[in-house]
User: Which sequence fits this backbone?
């Protein structure tokens, strides 16, 4: 049963992330957008097929990962308060990722207007993700190394807008999110019923 759980959670998270990346690159290519721009730009208001992009890149994948995170607390029932908070922050981060699809960029004003709501959701997602990874590194030994790498990636992504081209932070953070959540989905479910990995 536990093996089955590990299989479907990993598959669901992997499919969600594949959907995100395919949408981001597929829609950007279809719209002939230059490389290096924010990954969310194909979903900006006024662009063709923006609602479909926002659903496929953010909404559906975020909710899929949230469904896995919702069940995660049952995988480590005796892990303690810190682990529980870490897993709830994973859930919150997944929901904030999905929320970015409901708050699209404004193609005519990327630094203001409706784009500010998307930027706020992005920042809150990054903070919830980073905080969840930091607590997971402390309280969940099976994902400690991956969580420390995720914390480093979040810190790097938050610093990148000041030193790198537009869109670099998006890519670093999204790669880290995909890796961390995929690893949690694979490592956290116990290998055997009623027994966790050592």
Assistant:
């Amino acid at each position: 049963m536990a093996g089955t759980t590990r299989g479907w959670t990993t598959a669901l998270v992997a499919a969600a992330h594949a959907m995100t990346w395919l949408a981001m690159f597929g829609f950007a290519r279809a719209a002939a957008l230059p490389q290096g721009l924010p990954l969310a730009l194909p979903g900006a208001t006024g662009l063709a097929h923006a609602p479909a992009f926002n659903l496929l890149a953010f909404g559906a994948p975020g909710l899929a990962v949230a469904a896995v995170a919702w069940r995660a607390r049952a995988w480590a029932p005796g892990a303690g308060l810190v682990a529980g908070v870490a897993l709830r922050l994973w859930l919150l981060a997944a929901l904030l990722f999905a929320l970015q699809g409901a708050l699209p960029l404004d193609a005519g004003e990327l630094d203001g207007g409706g784009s500010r709501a998307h930027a706020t959701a992005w920042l809150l997602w990054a903070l919830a993700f980073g905080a969840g990874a930091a607590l997971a590194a402390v309280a969940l030994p099976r994902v400690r190394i991956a969580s420390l790498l995720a914390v480093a990636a979040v810190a790097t992504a938050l610093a990148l807008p000041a030193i790198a081209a537009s869109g670099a932070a998006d890519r670093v953070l999204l790669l880290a999110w995909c890796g961390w959540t995929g690893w949690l989905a694979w490592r956290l479910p116990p290998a055997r019923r009623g027994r966790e990995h050592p």
Summary: Confidence is low (pLDDT under 50) at residues 193-198. Residues 2-187 form one domain. The chain has one domain: 2-187.
